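One record is given unchanged without comment:
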Amino acid sequence: MLATVRRFLKDESGPTAVEYAVMLALIIVVCLAAISFVGTRASGVFSNVGNTIS
């Protein structure tokens, strides 16, 4: 059991995986914010076009 804990503490793949997970989460948050912003702007443009046509 103690050998397993030592091996876990020396292993570098855990922190690397956590760093990748944090970067992925940040990228997802930025993408969702961008999609939300673009969607709101597009909705406004389509509403203006619809009002202009009618």
